[in-house]
Write a structure and sequence with these properties.
- With 248 residues, the protein is α/β, with parallel strands linked by helices.
- The chain has a single domain, classed as NAD(P)-binding Rossmann-like Domain (Rossmann fold, 3-Layer(aba) Sandwich), CATH 3.40.50.720.
- 38% of the residues lie in helices and 19% in strands.
- It has 10 helices and 8 strands.
- The chain has an 8-stranded mixed β-sheet, with helices on both faces.
- Helix 7 links the parallel strand 4 and strand 5.
- The mean pLDDT is 95.
Length: 248
């Protein structure tokens, strides 16, 4: 770390759980963020501000005026620009030391596998089951930690599938792929703006914990948030011995 980095990350370095060595781990880490919308915005902002040295951001969509109510990495001037590129522009204003790669087209499973192979952690900020199932299969195959989040209306959830552990369930264990399942979308049913911030920030925290080896991750636990009541629930998760994706 140079002198500017020592100052920039000084509040991290002061934490004994992170310290100089932990911050060096972050600087030398690479996170793959899939989706630069409501969840991806706080994830990308906090990982960049916190010093994760390399980010790959995937999003084929462009910024729309309706996104700005909750997708805080984008500005009014970003409308019409690809979301990954818009996110990159904002990040470079916050922390020019971070290297940001942008993937601006839809990625195949093979493409996601190649991207995940180069990353230390994969963060699923997508808004559809098809992408979630693809990322899960990739992370199971490559034994990469996957930080999963979702939010709709006033409810959100977040967990970690860390396939480096033989005890960890995968996304398919929790939500088996029955085919043809679309689920709710923000454009159809709405979403409370701060909700995606809370869930996305929690994903960022889990990713940074995984990258530094600090604390205890959400592996084996699903956090559910009802933001109207402001109540968190924690549900224990177990691997499905008959899972078609992760069962050995």
């Amino acid at each position: 770390m140079n002198d500017n980095q020592l100052l920039r990350y000084s509040r991290h370095i002061l934490l004994p759980q992170i310290g100089y060595e932990g911050q060096e781990k972050l600087i030398n880490s690479h996170a793959l963020i899939v989706g630069a919308g409501g969840l991806g915005s706080p994830v990308a902002l906090y990982l960049a501000a916190g010093g994760v040295g390399k980010l790959t951001i995937c999003d084929f969509d462009s910024v729309d005026l309706t996104n700005l109510q909750r997708q805080i990495i984008h500005t009014t001037a970003s409308v019409g620009i690809n979301k990954a590129v818009s996110a990159q522009q904002t990040i470079y204003e916050i922390n020019p030391d971070v290297l940001v790669n942008t993937i601006c087209e839809k990625s195949s499973e093979a493409a996601f596998e190649a991207l995940a192979a180069e990353a230390d952690v994969v963060i699923d900020c997508s808004d559809n089951f098809a992408t979630r199932y693809v990322l899960n299969r990739v992370c199971v195959k490559l034994r990469k930690p996957l930080v999963s989040g979702a939010a709709i209306n006033f409810e959100g959830q977040v967990t970690v599938f860390d396939m480096r552990s033989d005890e960890s369930p995968c996304y398919h264990c929790l939500f088996p792929d029955m085919g043809g399942e679309e689920g709710l979308r923000c454009a159809e049913s709405g979403v409370f703006a701060p909700l995606v911030g809370i869930i996305g920030t929690t994903q960022a925290a889990e990713a940074m914990k995984l990258l530094t080896g600090m604390g205890k991750s959400l592996q084996g636990r699903l956090l559910l948030l009802d933001v109207q009541a402001m109540e968190w629930r924690s549900i224990k998760l177990a691997r499905d011995a008959a899972c078609k994706v992760c069962a050995h």
